[in-house]
Design a protein that fits this description.
The chain has 248 residues and is α+β, with helices and mostly antiparallel strands. 17% of the residues lie in helices and 32% in strands. The chain contains 5 helices and 14 strands. The strands form 5 sheets. A 5-stranded mixed sheet has the order 6-3-8-7-14. A 3-stranded antiparallel sheet has the order 5-4-9. The chain has a two-stranded antiparallel sheet with strand order 1-2. The longest helix has 13 residues.
Length: 248
């Protein structure tokens, strides 16, 4: 996106709970470090590789750096998922199904006297088709295995965007088990996250005498490990929203 278009575009201002409180010009928001809504997209192929893009050197910040497949801001009145799909098509030339897996806030200083202070919605998608990057937005792209990506970011952190380095360490594709649309393991290794324990919905709880051939015992105990029926109920961990700040 060119500088003039960036000056004219508006973003959604939010509070710490992602409640809309107004709108403002995009460039001014990044100069004043005002909290606004954004999105980040990770795309994987069937081999488990993740798609990276090298931001065009003409971008208003972080030009020439490598980052995730696409990121951006929903426009006032635009749903975040719809904005993410729009931006993916605009930058990388394709569309695919996206699932939101994480929400977080962060604040970090960028180049050119700008700041990122965002309430970010992180999406994940899978795609194996052709990629047609917009050369006004993207200088290059590549697919990398996750372990190779982690190694390269560790060895050459200056080549990657700030927000990408914040979210990357805990976004763990080999363990991306999704329950209720949220990952059970997200940013757990690097950032302090408050966790909330919730019970599995009743319809998914294993019951005695179900079609799996488990018969109730006369004592009222489950034959599985000698535990009572209620002990078969499982709790799953879901991440709440958290705040991540880059260490100074």
């Amino acid at each position: 996106m060119g500088y003039n278009n960036c000056m004219e575009e508006k973003v959604i201002l939010v509070d710490e709970h992602d409640q809309e409180i107004g709108e403002a010009e995009k460039m001014q928001v990044h100069k004043e470090a005002r909290l606004h809504r954004s999105f980040t997209i990770f795309i994987f192929n069937s081999k488990g590789e993740t798609l990276l893009q090298q931001r065009a050197k003409t971008k208003y910040h972080s030009g020439g750096l490598w980052s995730n497949a696409t990121c951006g801001h929903p426009r006032p009145g635009e749903a975040t998922r719809k904005a993410a799909q729009r931006r993916l098509k605009e930058e990388m030339g394709f569309d695919c199904g996206l699932e939101e897996v994480l929400q977080f806030t962060y604040k970090v200083k960028l180049d050119k006297g700008l700041w990122e202070h965002e309430f970010d919605h992180t999406f994940r998608g899978t795609y194996d088709g052709e990629i047609k990057p917009n050369l006004e937005e993207v200088d290059d792209f590549k697919w990398l295995e996750w372990k190779d990506l982690l190694g390269d970011v560790k060895e050459h952190p200056e080549q990657y965007t700030e927000w990408f380095k914040i979210v990357l360490p805990g976004f763990d594709p080999p363990h991306h088990d999704l329950v209720g649309g949220l990952t059970k393991r997200v940013l757990k290794s690097r950032l302090k996250i408050p966790w909330q324990r919730r019970k599995l919905p009743q319809k998914n709880i294993l019951k005695r005498g179900t079609s799996r051939g488990v018969k109730p015992s006369p004592s009222g105990r489950s034959p599985v490990g000698g535990q009572r029926k209620e002990n078969l109920k499982r709790n799953f961990l879901f991440p709440k929203m958290f705040t991540a700040r880059k260490s100074r």
